[in-house]
Design brief:
It contains eight helices and seven strands. The chain is an alpha/beta fold. A seven-stranded parallel beta sheet has the order 3-2-1-4-5-6-7, sandwiched between helices. Helix 2 links the parallel strand 2 and strand 3. The protein is globular, with a radius of gyration of 18 Å. The model has no long low-confidence stretch (mean pLDDT 92).
């Protein structure tokens, strides 16, 4: 990856799981990191450790604790980015959308238990629509330009069912659709957009899914590679796909799962 020393990556969901691993990977490849995360006092140490990983690689880390799906907070983060990018000509070379916050409720159950319209809307907005809004602003402000790469984290749940997973499944399907449209519209600008479909990975987000232990056991049993996917596996793939030689790879859902999906 040919990188100007001042270039940056933007990681949405930077404090744990795929976001944290990718921040460290891209820092090792030479990118400074803008990290957006939403953490409470109890989980904030994870964000601080993620920023430390970046600095240990000799790169700048600007981590902001904010709701990435809130329009006002998004604008404030972008203004902070503008300050750091300054007039140096630096750009955002890589964007990773790895926001994992949504409702895990059945579609049809007792009224008090089933997903409500506000919960469905929130899930779609955070896990899918926010990708569009961030990319719009990054392009319009000139931060994301030719040679840039956008990645969105999807899952096999975009096309499969699991108890309580309906709202998130819908969001992942919408995310993949948004990715394709963005890839089509940004191709003339030389910006690639792809979705990464990770295999089952033991992350904090996975452990919020009811029945996650069954997902883990099933993946361990069926994956031909004999193990779960790790955040480092995904980060390595994103690092490779961020190379300038991947400029013709766009509009795809790319499996990073050791062959798990073909074995199910």
């Amino acid at each position: 990856m040919a990188i100007a020393r001042a270039d940056w990556a933007l990681i949405l969901g930077a404090s744990s799981g795929f976001g944290r691993a990718t921040a460290a990977e891209l820092a090792r490849s030479g990118l400074n990191i803008f990290g957006v995360h939403l953490d409470t006092r109890t989980t904030l140490p994870s964000a601080e450790a993620a920023a430390s990983d970046v600095r240990s690689a000799g790169r700048e880390a600007v981590f902001i604790n904010a709701n990435a799906a809130d329009s006002a907070k998004r604008m404030a983060v972008l203004d902070t980015m503008a300050h750091h990018l300054g007039e140096s000509g630096a750009s955002v070379r890589v964007v990773l959308h790895s926001l994992a916050f949504g409702s895990l409720r059945p579609f049809v159950a007792k009224p008090e238990d089933q997903v409500a319209p506000k919960q469905m809307d929130m899930t779609l907005d955070v896990m899918a629509n926010s990708l569009v809004y961030w990319v719009q602003e990054l392009v319009q402000r000139g931060f994301l330009r030719q040679g840039g790469h956008v990645f969105a984290m999807t899952s096999a749940g975009s096309s499969r069912v699991w108890p309580m997973y309906g709202p998130v499944s819908a969001a992942k399907a919408a995310l993949e659709s948004h990715m394709r449209q963005l890839a089509y519209e940004l191709a003339p600008k030389g910006i690639t957009v792809n979705a990464i479909r990770a295999g089952v990975t033991d992350t904090p987000a996975l452990r919020k899914i009811p029945g996650h232990d069954q997902l883990i056991e099933g993946a361990q049993r069926h994956n031909p590679s004999g193990r779960l996917t790790t955040p480092a596996d995904v980060a390595s793939a994103i690092g490779a796909l961020s190379d300038a030689r991947s400029a013709w790879i766009t509009g795809n859902v790319i499996g990073v799962d050791g062959g798990e999906d073909i074995a199910l």
